[in-house]
Amino acid sequence: MTTDTNRPMTASEKVDALEEQMHRELNVRIAKSVLYQLGEIDPSRPDRGPVATGSSDPSAKALQGDDPRLQKMPPRPTLLDFFKYRWGFNSHLLQSANLAKKNGCDEKTILACLLHDIGVVGFIRSDHGYWGEQLVKPYVDEEVSWAIRAHQVLRFYPDESVGYTYPEMYIRLFGEDFKPEPYIEEEYKRALKSPYYMTARMITVNDVYAFDPNAKVNIEDFYDIIGRHFRQPEEGLGFDNSPVAHMWRTIIWPTRYL
Question: What pTM, to 2 d.p., does this model score?
Answer without folding.
Answer: 0.85
